Amino acid sequence: MPTFASSDQIRDLFSRSMSAMYKTEVPQYGILLDLVADINRATLEADPGLRGQLEAADELRRLDVERHGAIRLGTARELADMRRIFCVMGMHPVGYYDLSVAGVPVHATAFRPVDDAALRNNPFRVFTSLLRLDLVADAAVREQAQAILARRAIFTPRALELTALAEQAGGLSAQQAAEFVQEVTQTFRWHSEATVSHASYRQLHGAHRLVADVVSFKGPHINHLTPRTLDIDAAQAEMPRRGIAAKDVVEGPPRRRHAILLRQTSFKALEEPIVFAGDGADGSHTARFGEIEQRGMALTRAGRALYDRLLAGVRSMQGAGSASADYSERLAAAFREFPDDLDTLLSQGLAFFRWRVADADGLARVARSGAAFDLDALRGQGIVAASPIVYEDFLPVSAAGIFQSNLGGAEQKSYAANAAQEAFEAALGAPVADEIALYAQSQQASIEAVRQQYLARQAG
Ligand code: OOG
Ligand code: NI
Questions:
Q1: Is 14 in the pocket of ligand 1 (CB under 6 A)?
Q2: pTM for this model (two decimals)
């Protein structure tokens, strides 16, 4: 039996490799990393309770390596190969995001680890969009884009070879894994030479800026990498102090005592010089930016429905990214309806929790008394504890806001709501997992583990 590098190890290597590359490509990203590290350190020092909570949930370890990236692919074939490659790193497609409702001609999934141990190790995730040429009205542009995309190969031959090898052999050796990571990283590099002429670029751009971004280059450059902060409002305030212009509003829910889902802010995409093909004309393109996020607890279907309803009252999908001056007050006012204490969130079934034994002696005492297993009673006595499960996914309205703040306010195409999950899954070559079902499983597994300990004490 050969020894394989674990998928956790490969993912960790890959996320570090991408981070190192993006730091040299976009120096502002390095500034964001330092800023987030400083704020996280200060937040933990000021709030020992939070530190203890994160430590108990074994979440402190992953904080420094935690980030997500985003890429935009052009064809079904690219997406299907991407799925195979991410699978080697233990990253699987979770969730379906339809961005057409927000005027962006893509749909997407998030590749991420799905099991608890892998998430604790390194939760690296990549928001992966697929261009939808079917939403481009101009047939000539559509065909031109298709023809250009059909000619390109975004993965190196060696990356695909090593992927096939991993699939056949069931893994990669440490040496192969290092080579694999290096090869795959190449795909996401920035190319300052476009593969199309300036005239073609302008045509593609006319259809939608996203079309130009996906079609005009050799490959899908990583367009941002996002570290996780423990206090996004502090991060937002610190960005201008370090010479970075933050977008106006923080996406997602308002600030709360107990954070839910995901809050995000970003700085605008850089205008970068491009040399075009054929005519050799100089021009520029804006695609790459920086983002910071704060993660809160995962919500149940009921909790998510409440979130979506409250958010929709404040902001429509169409208006995402262009918020009015009193937006944060209106947001805060709307969310007063969303309970902000853990007991209520738990008892009303609004959020997911991970259960654990907090007092093993107490558990043994109650178990031996012959009482039937009663989770709520045990929690009431402080014998078991429940802490919120972190939200590992993305939010479509926020993603739309992020896309739009980087497309410039002028870009406001509207497409009819047009979810096409089946077509996406056909392109992907696999179904996407339902993220809410994953959180429910994880909660259930934690309850089952507590119950097993209880039964073992009862028997022993
Ligand atoms: C992806 C935007 C979505 C997020 O954090 O919601 C995203 C993109 O711009 O390609 O990364
Ligand atoms: Ni992002």
A1: no
A2: 0.95
